[in-house]
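## retry 2 of 3
previous attempt timed out at serialization; input unchanged, resubmitting
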Amino acid sequence: MEKAGLVTRRRDPANRWVHQLTLTEDGEAAFHRMRAAAMAFDERLRSGIPEAEIDAMTETLQRLAINAARESRPLRRPGGAATAHGW
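## retry succeeded, writing output
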């Protein structure tokens, strides 16, 4: 991004391990173009889907993400043997 002229980078004078990035005018313009394109695509994706269905899907996806983030444990068969597949 720096080579493309979208950002400038400099070291933080208070902490030489840290780089500070700043958008250039071209970077700011690119950001706004990408943002507009992303918003138009999102609108197209949601077209014809009632807001209540979008909300329900969002809630379900959030719950799936929470479940996926939990520590995985071997599942047990009804007889008590552990399996990786849960059978």
